[in-house]
């Protein structure tokens, strides 16, 4: 069994990455599992880092890409770099991994369950953010999500990128990661294509912590929010047309909440403007 780990950095020193610190602590678990692995550190920051100064206790390759073309470019590099590897583990810089998570991943891999994705439960600021099902999205209960049962998921789910393992054989069939979603909603796209192609995902019982800063509309910039919303509306108008109505209902509720709770009123106004424009789609 072989795994390629792709850790994407942006404006973050390697030694300040929660993910990197977690990986260093997991070295013994990897060695005991007898699973072969290689870590690719893909740095989208403008200036390269002196990685040789860091104490890295596992096999790695450092790639610096000042173009900052997003995570899809980084993930595709990881997919192509070691074509003989069987799984690709996607990681952002702000994800805390735990022994429970990694041990359960190895157990699922050893059982050779017929799935093309393995994903944990992800917590951000004490809130379960991933995975979610289509039904949960339809019911507009984002803050009252019931935990999805662990195991193989026959229902279509969506899970965030970081902490998810994808089978390379599936990525080969898919042709890699699309550049239509260079940063946002790439995870929605990959899970949508997975179920469209009649493949399945496995949800772990283990949880990991992930700092999802884009959840806080009081700290996000207007430019960043515009980028997210652009990807969001493109996804639902092109790939999940059957849920486009639910997306617009969600956006309406979101804009109302933003009008009351978000200091930067330009974000609320942009949500409303996008909602009005979406009627033409």
Task: Please give a quick description of this structure.
With 281 residues, the protein is an alpha/beta fold. The protein has helices at residues 18-25, 27-33, 71-81, 99-111, 134-138, 168-174, 186-196, 222-238, 244-261, 265-278; strands at 2-9, 36-43, 60-64, 87-91, 95-96, 117-124, 127-130, 132-133, 151-153, 157-158, 165-167, 201-210. α8 packs parallel to α10 (265-278) and α9 runs antiparallel to α10 (265-278).
Strand content: 15-25%
In N-to-C order, the SSE pattern is EHHEEHEEHEEEHEEEHHEHHH
Radius of gyration, Cα only, in angstroms?
19 Å
The domain count comes to: 2
Q: Provide mean pLDDT, rounded.
A: 91
- CATH topology annotation of the largest domain: Spore Coat Polysaccharide Biosynthesis Protein SpsA, Chain A
- Give the C-level CATH assignment of the largest domain: Alpha Beta
Assigned CATH superfamily of the largest domain: Spore Coat Polysaccharide Biosynthesis Protein SpsA, Chain A
Q: Shape, please?
A: globular
The number of helical elements comes to 10
DSSP helix fraction: 25-40%
The tally of strands reads 12
CATH architecture of the largest domain: Alpha-Beta Complex
Structural classification: alpha/beta
Largest sheet: 10 strands, mixed
Low-confidence stretches: none
End-to-end distance: 46 Å
SSE arrangement:
Elements lengths: L1 E8 L8 H8 L1 H7 L2 E8 L16 E5 L6 H11 L5 E5 L3 E2 L2 H13 L5 E8 L2 E4 L1 E2 H5 L12 E3 L3 E2 L6 E3 H7 L11 H11 L4 E10 L11 H17 L5 H18 L3 H14 L3
Parallel strand pairs: 1-2, 1-4, 2-3, 6-12
Antiparallel strand pairs: 4-11, 5-12, 6-7, 6-11, 8-10, 9-12
Helix pairs in contact: 8-10, 9-10
